[in-house]
Design brief:
single chain; mainly alpha; Four Helix Bundle (Hemerythrin (Met), subunit A)
């Protein structure tokens, strides 16, 4: 499944491949912390950490015009607002899988060895 809207992304970065590479690297570098915070939030039933982390992640996903992942993040953010943490765990896993898929797309677009594993 394609997560990145390549036309919207190209317009956003104004066809600047160097900028795309920099954004991709910063995104990948932020993932371990985001994943750890998401897992902490569901393990410790901390709705405020879930809301905050997912909100930040949703903003970063917007850089790549990843609308489907942004919608998943929005749903998770709403779970945090509604303190619906039983529902959050599978949604976190689904979002992380989608991000892995998006990284495959970014690797092809940037030709960079963007390394990240949900198991790190």
């Amino acid at each position: 499944m394609a997560h990145i809207d390549q036309h919207a992304l190209a317009a956003f970065i104004q066809h600047d491949d160097e900028l795309l590479g920099e954004l991709a690297i910063m995104f990948v570098q932020s993932l371990p912390d985001s994943e750890a915070r998401l897992r902490y939030a569901v393990d410790h039933r901390d709705a405020s950490v879930l809301r905050e982390t997912v909100h930040q992640l949703k903003s970063r996903l917007a850089y790549f015009s990843a609308e489907s992942l942004q919608q998943q993040a929005l749903h998770l953010e709403q779970c945090g607002r509604g303190n619906q943490l039983d529902e959050a765990r599978p949604l976190v896993e689904q979002l992380l899988i989608g991000i892995e898929e998006m990284l495959c797309e970014l690797r092809l677009l940037t030709r960079l060895p963007l390394q990240y594993s949900c198991d790190d």
